[in-house]
Every structure is written in C-alpha cells, then in structure tokens.
Amino acid sequence: MKQFVMALLTLFGVLTTLTSSAQEVPKIRVGMIGLDTSHVPAFAKFFNGPKLEGDLASIKVVAAYPGGTDFPPSKNRVAMFTEQIRGMDIEIVDTIPKLLEKVDVVLLESVDGRIHLQEATPVIKAGKPLFIDKPAAGSLADAIAIFELAKEHKLPCFSSSSVRFGAGLQELKKNESLGEIAGAETWGPCSYQDGTPDMFFYGIHGIEALYTLMGTGCESVARVQTADADLLTGVWKNGRAGTYRGLRRNKADFGAVAFGTKAIVPMTKGDGYEPLCREIAKFFKTGVAPVSPEETIEIFTFMEAADESKRQGGAPVALQDVLAKARAAGQK
Description:
- By secondary structure, the protein is an alpha/beta fold.
- The chain has twelve helices and 13 strands.
- It has helices at 2-23, 39-48, 72-75, 78-86, 96-102, 116-125, 140-152, 167-173, 203-214, 274-286, 293-311, 319-330; strands spanning 28-33, 59-65, 91-92, 105-108, 130-133, 157-160, 181-189, 218-225, 229-236, 241-247, 255-260, 264-266, 317-318.
- It has a seven-stranded mixed sheet with strand order 12-11-7-10-9-8-13. A six-stranded parallel sheet has the order 3-2-1-4-5-6, with helices on both faces.
- Helix 9 (203-214) packs across helix 11 and helix 11 packs across helix 12 (319-330).
- The longest helix is centred in the N-terminal third of the chain and has 22 residues, at 2-23.
- The chain is globular.
- Mean pLDDT is 92; it is low at 1-22.
C-alpha cells in the first residue's frame, strides 16, 4: 500500500511539473516606439494586464523608446506617457537599436506620422514584425516606401485604426439583412495637424471605417470643405458611392450607416481599443496581417486625393493619378 501511495505521489509530481511547464510558454517580447499618444498606456494595459486570455496572453510589452518630435501632440505629451509606461514596469531605452536588442516584435506608436518611415526602417531591416499605429505614414509616398521595404525583406507588417475592428462596425459589415452593401456613409471627428494632409491625423478613423464597409476599388474622390466639416465622396469601380463626413465643430461622434440591396442599417455601438489589441496579438503570433498593404495604400491614396480635390475646388480626382504621382516622387 505504501509503495502504491508513493507511486501516486510521484505521478502527481510529474503531472504538476508538466502542467507548470506547459503554462510557462515564453511570451513574445513587444517593444514600443514613440510614447506620445494615449494609445501607449491603453495598449500596454491590454498586453500586460493581470487577467489575460486568448492571444493577448501570449505577448508582453517589455521595453519602450520614447521618441518624440516638435509636432504639438507629441512634444506636449511624450514626457507624461513615458512616465506612465515606466510606472508599468516597462524598461525605457534611449535608442531604437537598443530597443531592437530586447524585443521580438514592435509597435510603432509615434503620433507624428512624418517620422514613421525613418523609425520603421531599422525595425524592418532587423526582421522584427511590425504594427504601425495610425497614420501609417505622414505622406502617401512614405506609406508606399514602408510597405515596399517590408515586402523586400519579407517582413509581416500592417497598420490600422482601432475603429476597423470594433464590434459595431464588424456587425454592420456582416449584417445579412443588408443583402449586398451598395454604399455607405461614415462620420467622425476630423481635426487637422500642420505638416500632414488634412485627413491623415484624425480623419483616417472614419475613412478606414468607410473602407471596412466598402472594400477597395475606389476610382475617384471629390471633397467639399466648409467651416464646420469636410464631405468626401468616393466612387467605386462598380458604380457604388461611399461618403465620409469629417466633423470639425459641433457634435462629433463616430458613426456609420450601410445602404444595402435589401435594407439600410446604421451602426448601433462603438468600441474601445481591445478588438484592435487582440488583432495585433494574433498578428504577432501568426505573422498574418489582417489588413493588406494594398488596402492601406489605397486608403492613403484616397486621403491624398481628397487634398488634391480641395486644391482643385472640389473637382473629382482619380486615385490612379495620385498614386502614380506619389510613386514617381518616391523614386527620385
């Protein structure tokens, strides 16, 4: 009997060791570049929280590089968010090369899109899978350069607004009562920042929502600008029309409505950052981007075409012309 009990205890010990080992799977080490946006502490809480499950449980932010530029939203906030990240037990380093020595993957969070190409380049060349927070870049030419460099190095890379993966928008996109989506309208806050095209800073949220519903294939954009708002109308290759209303005064909530072949359905709820964080975690585990480079480049072409339409007094502007001009500029 004593031998039997001892055997059971031994077996229990082996099983406990195996279970413990199975639970101690090394986490993917995440580094952050650019501590000058509220996304930084918000994302870190999701990735480093005490009660993680699913894909979120597989990654952890371990180091961060503050960065920062003279861009007002950056210089006024980088010190504050750096201290918040330091207080979360995340190591702060003073260069990107030092960061890359300590991490497996990277979140490029810098709020100033104008430096994204500069910051993304060493990450891509080091072979670290990369998520780039909105906007992917400060110009269409830079966005193209980033994704072409990633392609050259066969590196997984994607960029997205958090709005894309919100439950409300995803449910609207998949709503079977719509039939086929024949058109869509989205709206949201649209403040500008000097140094980047008008839509890049905040308009991208609503424009990405428009693309989530409409898909790629927009051929032209026309823009009307008033004191209170911007109205962008895109015409897709199959004749569908999609509009984005950028709100710069008055009430400025996010919203969307889809016009289907069988019904017209509004978006009924919004979301925070968690759905995007789950997609980022899944991306870092699988290396599969949930948004293609082609779609992101088209979104940036759409926004750049909107600026060109403004310069032309609201005339429709062909996306293919804007894209060709940007590619030519990038080759100089």
